[in-house]
Design brief:
The complex is a heterodimer of chains A (146) and B (98).
Chain A lengths: L5 E7 L5 H15 L3 H22 L7 E9 L2 E8 L27 H8 L2 E6 L5 E7 L8
Antiparallel strand pairs in A: 1-2, 2-3, 3-5, 4-5
Chain B lengths: L1 E5 L5 E7 L4 H8 L6 E11 L1 H15 L5 E6 L1 H9 L7 E4 L3
Parallel strand pairs in B: 2-3, 3-4, 4-5
Antiparallel strand pairs in B: 1-2
The chains are: A alpha+beta (146), B alpha/beta (98).
Chain lengths: 146, 98
């Protein structure tokens, strides 16, 4: 593990790039010494966040860009996902009720819930000059020799 | 990579990664299924909320006809996601190795 390592990726806002994003998380995670369990959680959280940006933020416009940044902070992993889409307010997204009967369970609405489940911190921040930053923190993600 | 097909035994084999990019392909296939539906997820490597939505929509449709989806050969990681999502209360799930 190298505390100085940072990893950046820029992708066009296309669902076809989700696999590329997941591979970036896996490769950066391997370099940082992220545990297999944390790697799986981060892969899903970032996939959900990027999917939301592509579909809801950019309306599936592949000419738009999404920037990802991943680094370590002690034994934590911090990931920042930036877009230039309209301001996103997660407060407008209802939390799924997991004990709801099948007939009343909606098909969507799981993405933000899973992002929060898979991480210790998930902040949705408007950027000063427009766009959004999603900041994800996963503590205890990096294996240590202690 | 994502593939979905019917096996010789009538089970539906799901292989690869079921994300938002593949959800339409999965939904179009499952929309044609009628009656009891057994999904073998032994080779499913990954699923996101888009894939969960496909399973939920199909399960609800089939339950309307008195059947539904049974999920078999579910590996540990996929099972965790089902549990986080509350799917373990909605679907009959058989873990890999059971």
């Amino acid at each position: 593990m190298n505390a100085e390592q940072v990893f950046d990726l820029s992708v066009n806002a296309s669902l076809e790039n989700l696999q590329k994003v997941r591979e970036y998380i896996d490769q950066a995670g391997a370099q940082l010494g992220v545990s297999e369990k944390a790697q799986g959680d981060l892969r899903l959280a970032v996939d959900e966040a990027v999917t939301n940006v592509i579909i809801h933020g950019y309306g599936n416009d592949p000419s738009k860009k999404i920037e990802l940044h991943m680094e370590s902070d002690g034994d934590a992993v911090v990931i920042r996902i930036r877009d230039r889409a309209k301001i996103f307010d997660p407060g407008n997204v209802s939390t799924p009720q997991l004990d709801t009967a099948l007939k009343d369970r909606p098909f969507g609405g799981m993405g933000i819930f899973l992002i929060r489940e898979m991480t210790d911190e998930a902040a949705f921040l408007p950027l000063p000059d427009g766009g959004n930053e999603i900041r994800l923190v996963k503590r205890g993600a990096i294996l240590t020799n202690d | 990579m994502f593939e979905i097909e019917i096996s010789d035994e009538g089970k539906i084999l799901v292989e690869g990664r079921l994300d938002a990019a593949q959800a339409v392909k999965a939904q179009e296939f499952l929309d044609r299924v009628e009656g009891q539906c057994v999904l073998d997820l032994g080779k499913l490597e990954y699923i996101s909320s888009a894939g969960l939505g496909v399973l939920l929509k199909t399960h609800k449709r089939l339950m309307g006809f008195g059947s539904g989806i049974k999920l078999i050969n579910v590996n540990h990681h996929i099972h965790d996601i089902f549990r986080y999502s509350g799917f373990d209360k909605l679907f009959e799930i058989v873990a890999a190795g059971d």
